[in-house]
Amino acid sequence: MSDLNHHWQKVYRDKSPDQVSWFQAAPQPSLDLITKQRANLGGLEFIDVGAGASTLVDSLLDLGLASATLLDISAEALAVSRARLEAQGHQDLGYLVQDISQWQPDRAFDIWHDRAVFHFMVTPEAQAGYRRALMAGTRPGSLIVLATFALDGPEKCSGLPVQRWGLDSLQAFLGEGFHALESQNHLHSTPGGVEQKFQFSVFERQRESKPRTSGNTHEQGLVLEIS
Length: 227
Prior knowledge:
Helices cover about 25% and strands about 25% of the residues. The chain has a 7-stranded mixed sheet. Strands 6-7 form a two-stranded antiparallel sheet. About 35% of the residues are buried. The protein has one domain (about 5-205): Vaccinia Virus protein VP39 (Rossmann fold, 3-Layer(aba) Sandwich), CATH 3.40.50.150. The chain has helices at about 5-15, 30-35, 55-60, 75-85, 125-135, 165-175; strands spanning about 45-50, 65-70, 95, 110-115, 145-150, 155, 160, 180-190, 195-205. It has 6 helices and 9 strands, in the order H-H-E-H-E-H-E-E-H-E-E-E-H-E-E.
């Protein structure tokens, strides 16, 4: 087990789903952003990257989503979601225990959702691995919803450093084959009452793209180790 895997396993062993800082009583604004762009969810395949114990998939299934895959580095987190969803009668969902920066998808999804995983990719190697997975896991026409800490958001989360992003730096990272549809700021309040500034960005994949040679697109800001 890698150090990163061990870290997230411990988080979900030590805390209940409603105690972690990223807990949401309602999965917003993700739900509104997805349904605004894809009003008819029938026939679509959805993946939630870093799904944890989020109830976003529950809401999408209630609205007619055809197929869902939940991916997380923590088996503990997915076990919570699986128990909840199977109790609701959802028996045929996919559950993947994977480090997204190392994962090699075997098919493409219509909707790729990531709330608060990508900003943990703080090295060029991890970011490149994430982009490889995104390219293999989407196709032209796929919708991508990325939620990261905003440029003026937190510098760390769960004891780990993060890289903060804005719409322009995300666009530069993704490349010309991804068209920005919408972005919005979101203020998340943790169960402990701490406010965190998020950036939600929505893209649609278009023609095949090549990564832009990136010196520093650091509108993103530095990777900060401040406690």
